[in-house]
Design brief:
About 50% of the residues lie in helices and about 25% in strands. A hairpin with a 2-residue loop joins strand 1 and strand 2. It has about 675 residues and is α+β, with helices and mostly antiparallel strands. It has a five-stranded antiparallel β-sheet with strand order 2-1-5-4-3, with helices on both faces. Strands 11-10-14-13-12 form a five-stranded antiparallel β-sheet, with helices on both faces. The protein has a five-stranded mixed β-sheet with strand order 16-18-19-21-20. The termini are far apart. The chain has 17 helices and 21 strands. The chain is elongated. About 0% of the residues have low confidence. Helix 13 packs across helix 15 and helix 15 runs antiparallel to helix 17.
């Protein structure tokens, strides 16, 4: 009787254990499907994000041109304004409601006048709903996007607005420093209609916040706030002076259909395993017959187990380090196109299938893991497929050490991430498009003063000069100004040109080039980049433009961190922001560090900082992709690592690059 009870108890425990394993596999499969759906939603709304940024930033350039024109023509007449504004309006493809000037904050010029007569003479200082946005634009002396705002003449608009400040020469001539405001009225309904069309086309629901460019702190702009209760995916739309946040969920929701077939197979596997244990422990049959049945049952159970494990799309590997052999599961072999018996277990045979460019980084990563075995090992690299091409794979593993601290075994999984890498490449392109928007703003800032100078030179020619020598001097000055503007465009254009994946470059020189491109923004935010040129560093090999993309992300993050520190009074308004850049070589690895005085990163998000959708500056409009893409570039292009920690006065980002034996 006791034997029967023991057999029954062990069978029940076996049933529960196998069933729990199957349920865990099923839960992982469901979670993976949820993540893929969220990733697809992010990719969809990134298209809308790029479209909105392009639409808005193009209109901002019109506002900056209008500011420059009025800045050198403070006595502009209605006729002059009409001629100038008509050209701007004609190029705006119907999405601009009106172009306005507000001298002394009273609307003094409007084009077109028809339909906007009631706004003429309006004192913007008496409009409380616009005061905060107006004061912010004047305080920062830059073009900002305000709204949406209900217009007195009817309708709704977003306003691209900036202050007109006159030069010292004009002030000495009796003009006030602050002339007034220049603003371009964007048709809000056109933007809403674009979002509605996108919702129908992409099968998503949209909720947009960030009134007056205030990001997550701004009020609703479009959509139903109830969408926030459904764990939406989101991206940030970068606009002048701040950002909007774009939330989205699939129209059908996040729920995925349950795979009942997998659960039924798992239940059957658990039941058969329990019956097998019962028969093994209790049934007193002929030993030979029992062994035969047990062997057959075990084989069937292994096949069913392979079926359940196969649902995760990952293969299993078991590395016996002293014996230099690696056992691989059938699924592992299938990922590389092999069947059972078609590939050996010799360590060298399997390592030779790794792409030669990825192998040094893998060896460095394994040595690092052996020194810190409590952490999970992970790596992404290319392996040769049986068909002759390379596929991208992701490996996870954990080593086991003996009493002397020497690794003798390592077990893990391998999954095919080729499609995921392609999606990551698309995300990188989206990030570059977002960076292009920032570059457009930087070009506009670089052009502001030369454009004003050029228009003053043209005004001199129009009024007339005293002699042909004076005319030649004016023309030479104009040519020099145009040449400077052209060089600015060339400098920024080179940043986005495709480059070789095998460039050889000096990292500190490339960092300095990025800092020069960001010079207007750095000056605007009172930030200095200090590069330590005292220590000579070796050159790097790889795509120099991909390297510059990482540097651009890190410097932009530092600027935003310093601005946040000023807002929270960790830094005073007059205190200089500093980003220190330097490097050193240790154990065949070049380490570059970027340290700012922005107060550091919240410890709550530091551990998951490089995960997708994680950002150090959500409130300031961070997208959550910059650091994720930066680490991906360092890992895949340069086979290195990117890490972050908090220093005495701010964040420290360290990029590590393995050097070749020749370097």
């Amino acid at each position: 009787m006791q034997q029967r009870q023991v057999a029954a108890l062990i069978s029940i425990v076996t049933f529960i254990a196998v069933l729990l394993v199957v349920l865990v596999i099923d839960a992982n499969s469901q979670a993976k499907q949820q993540e893929m759906l969220r990733q697809a939603t992010i990719e969809k709304i990134s298209t809308l994000q790029v479209s909105l940024e392009k639409h808005i930033n193009t209109r901002v350039l019109l506002t900056q041109g209008l500011i420059a024109y009025v800045g050198i023509n403070p006595d502009i007449t209605t006729e002059e304004f009409t001629r100038y504004a008509r050209e701007l309006y004609r190029t705006a493809d119907g999405r601009i409601l009106a172009i306005q000037l507000a001298k002394g904050n009273h609307i003094s010029h409007i084009y077109p006048m028809e339909g906007h007569e009631s706004a003429l003479g309006l004192n913007l200082s008496e409009r409380p709903e616009q005061q905060e946005a107006i004061n912010r634009a004047i305080r920062l002396n830059r073009v900002l996007l305000a709204g949406p705002i209900e217009l007195v003449q009817g309708g709704e608009a977003f306003i691209s607005r900036g202050p007109v400040l006159l030069s010292i020469e004009q002030q000495e001539a009796g003009y006030p420093r602050y002339w007034g405001l220049a603003q371009v009225m964007l048709d809000a309904e056109a933007i809403y209609e674009e979002i509605k069309v996108f919702e129908n086309t992409a099968s998503v629901r949209i909720y947009l916040i960030g009134r007056d460019s205030m990001g997550v702190e701004g009020d609703r702009i479009y959509g139903d706030a109830a969408l926030l209760e459904q764990d939406p995916a989101w991206v940030d739309v970068q606009i002048p002076g701040g950002s909007w946040r774009l939330y989205a969920t699939p129209q059908t929701g996040w729920a995925q259909p349950i795979s009942w077939s997998q659960r039924i197979v798992g239940f059957a596997l658990a039941l058969l395993s329990a019956l097998f244990v019962w028969m093994l422990l209790y049934t007193p049959v002929k030993l030979q017959n029992m062994v035969r049945k047990a062997t057959q049952s075990l084989k069937e159970n292994e096949e069913r187990w392979e079926l359940a494990v196969g649902a995760t799309d990952d293969g299993v590997w078991d590395w016996s380090i002293p014996q230099q052999k690696i056992f691989t599961s059938p699924r592992w072999k299938a990922i590389l196109g092999f069947g059972e018996g078609e590939i050996g277990e010799e360590e060298l045979e399997l390592f030779n299938r790794i792409h030669p460019e990825d192998l040094p980084g893998i060896r460095v990563g394994l040595q690092s893991h052996f020194q810190r075995p409590d952490e999970r090992y992970s790596a992404e690299f290319r392996m040769a497929h049986k068909a002759g091409h390379y596929i991208w794979v992701r490996a996870f593993g954990k080593a086991v050490l003996d009493r002397n601290g020497t690794p003798y075994r390592m077990v893990g999984t391998l999954g095919d991430i080729t499609q995921e890498r392609e999606r990551q490449s698309m995300m990188l392109q989206h990030l570059k498009l977002a960076a292009l928007g920032e570059m457009q703003g930087a070009i506009a800032h670089q052009w502001k003063q030369p454009l004003a100078s050029l228009m003053m030179l043209l005004a001199k020619l129009r009024v007339g000069t005293k002699s042909p020598e004076d005319q030649q001097r004016v023309l030479a000055d104009a040519e020099e100004t145009v040449s400077f503007m052209g060089k600015t465009v060339d400098d920024f254009n080179r940043f986005f040109l495709p480059r070789s994946a095998h460039d050889e470059f000096q990292p500190l020189e490339s960092i300095e080039e990025v800092a020069q491109m960001l010079a207007p923004r750095l000056r605007n935010h009172f930030v200095t980049v200090r590069i330590d040129h005292d220590k000579p560093l070796p050159t790097l090999q790889g795509s120099v433009n991909e390297f510059k993309q990482v540097v651009l992300n890190l410097l932009n993050n530092a600027i935003e961190a310093i601005e946040a520190a000023r807002r929270s009074q960790k830094l005073s308004e007059s205190q200089e922001g500093v980003v220190s850049v330097g490097g050193f070589v240790a154990d065949g690895v070049l380490n570059l560090h970027f340290e700012d005085n922005g107060g550091g990163i919240d410890p709550a998000i530091l551990k998951g900082l490089f995960a997708p959708y994680c950002s150090t500056r959500h409130k300031e409009g961070g997208s959550g992709f910059g650091l994720y893409i930066s680490r991906m570039i360092i890992q895949t292009v340069f086979k290195g690592t990117l890490s972050a920690e908090n220093g005495p006065s701010g964040a420290i980002f360290t990029a590590s690059f393995p050097l070749s034996s020749e370097g």
